[in-house]
Amino acid sequence: MKKTGFQAELPYERFLKHGAGSLTNAELLAIVLRTGTNRESATDLGRKILQIRDEHSTALSVLHDLTMEDLIEIDGIGEVKAVKILCLAELSKRMVSEKAGERQQFTKAPVVADCYMEKLRHEPHEKAYLLFLDNKLSLIAEEILSIGTVNRTLLDPREIYLRALRKKAVSILLLHNHPSGDPTPSADDIAVTKRVAKAGEIIGIPLIDHIVIGDGRYCSMKESGHLTNGG
Q: Which residues pair with 143 in a beta bridge?
């Protein structure tokens, strides 16, 4: 049956006439991809991306788990299109994190975990973040300390507090993820926390907490009793 009217419009045309809300997830991806192949439209490619893990899925959440290799296995998606999709996924994670962190005071671990959960729960490698806080425990800035295993060698208290002094932080907070999804702290996680906290007591910039992010779960060193000083 030949499609007419609204159904016959291409995603880009529909966007211009009716707005982004009129498009399906596959059609939104089609606009990012721009072109399809001789056999499939850009919308067909968008649908294939959404179905990489589940042939019946239409959920955009799959984008957070995809790799370059996953995407270029689809006929019609090369490196350039794969990079666009991966950047789109990263933008979505950052938007969620920034929105959650707007004007937030990091006085409680659940608040911090909410702000960083989507940003870190899908990461394939451990990432350690250093958060700089003002006198109201609001976020001044964040920096990545390391990518890889979080251990005592990589997280040097001297480097951490040099950065904190440059940012004029009143206090700091450490945060990293466990790609396994289990936020239970390792012996190294606990050791890092104690070393940084001890240095903070001397310098006068307390470590408020060290939070480990898992898949939908977190562990706070302060709540679990591994950090007894700080805010």
A: 130
